[in-house]
Amino acid sequence: MTSMQNSAQVVWDYLAIEQPLERADGLLVLGNNDTRTADYAAALMQQGWAKWLCFSGGYGRLSRTTFTRPEAETFADIALAAGVPEQHMLVEPQAANTGENIRFARALFDKRGIALDTLLITTKPYLQRRALATCLQQWPAVSCRAAPVPLLFYRYANCDISEAAVLDGLIGEMQRILEYPAKGFMVEQAVPDTVMAAYRELCGACKVKA
Q: Which pLDDT tens digit goes with each residue over 76-99?
C-alpha cells in the first residue's frame, strides 16, 4: 500500500471499533448509502443475535442521489427479501443525522412498547465508533455494543463507492470525533497519537485542513 493508504488503514482501524458479538434485545441499523449494511443486519438477525431489528434513516447527502426511497425503507426491503420477519422489524425513515437515528429509534421502540436493555448498533465500518459514542450519550439507559459490517479498508471500495469517497469519509469522521463531544452530541473518545499522526498525514495527502 502507499503511504496514504497506510495512514488510511490506521484511521480506519480506529474508527471501525469492534467488540465481541453478544446477543441483544435489539439491533439498530443506522442508514447510509451502502446496502451491504442491510445485508449484514439481515444475517445477524437470521443468526439470532437480536429479537428486534430497527432501521433508521431518511435521505443523506450520498443516498439522496442513488436511492429512490429513504435509507431505512431501502434497507428494510433488503432485510425482508433476505427472510427477516416483518413483525420483528421497525422502520424509522425520518432521521437526518446520527443523533436523530438514536433519538428517533428510541422513541419508536417506546411507542411500540418494546423495552430494551441491550442493543447492537450496525453501520458502515468507519462510522461505527461515532455511532457507539453517540448512543452512549443519547441513550445511556441501554447497554449498547458495536457490530460493524466486517469489511477491511482495502476491500471496502467497490463500483458504487470510490476509494476517494472513502478517504473523504475517514477525514470527515475524524473531524466529528474530535469536535462533537464538546457540542454534547457524543461521549469523548481517546485518540492515540498514532491515529492523530495518520489523520494529519491523510489530510495533507488529500489537501484538507486538519
A: 999 999 999 999 999 999 999 999
